[in-house]
UniProtKB/TrEMBL annotation:
Superkingdom of the organism of origin: Eukaryota
Listed InterPro entries: Rpr2/Snm1/Rpp21 (IPR007175)
Keywords: Metal-binding, tRNA processing, Zinc
GO MF, any single term: metal ion binding
UniProt family annotation: Belongs to the eukaryotic/archaeal RNase P protein component 4 family.
Protein name: Uncharacterized protein LOC113516380
Encoding gene per record: LOC113516380
Gene3D superfamilies (alphabetical): 6.20.50.20, Immunoglobulin FC, subunit C
GO biological process terms held by the UniProt record: tRNA processing
GO CC field: nucleolar ribonuclease P complex
């Protein structure tokens, strides 16, 4: 008997909407924004956390997908011994800064082995 993952159908829906949003961002940015908004609303309604990689690809203001040199401009800046990637959305002009560690073996906490409590098949 396998355990049922809470919100599994919601995660599948978020994944599907993410893929559609990424496909539509070049053809119709408004539709991509709509799908991005649905992703965030589904996660809020079901109290689910969106994976950081997906969350970083969604613009915070217009919810359009951010793809380098397609829907967003990227710049690498140095600030006080650390590097920052600055994303600028082509749709709404919003800027977003993401820190980049100089340490090469840096990874998100989600990707670390101590973050995994139980593997469900």
């Amino acid at each position: 008997m396998s355990k049922k993952v809470q919100g599994n159908d919601s995660f599948q829906r978020i994944n599907y909407l993410y893929q559609i949003s990424k496909q539509m961002c070049t053809k119709n940015p408004g539709l991509s924004s709509y799908y991005g908004n649905l992703i965030v609303n589904i996660a809020k309604k079901n109290v689910l956390k969106i994976h950081p990689d997906i969350k970083r690809q969604i613009c915070k203001t217009c919810r359009c997908m951010l793809i380098a040199n397609v829907t967003a401009k990227t710049k690498i800046r140095s600030k006080k011994k650390s590097k920052i990637i600055e994303w600028t959305c082509n749709t709404c002009g919003a800027k977003r800064s993401i820190p980049v560690e100089k340490n090469k073996d840096y990874s998100l906490w989600v990707d670390r082995p101590e973050a995994v409590v139980e593997v469900i098949n």
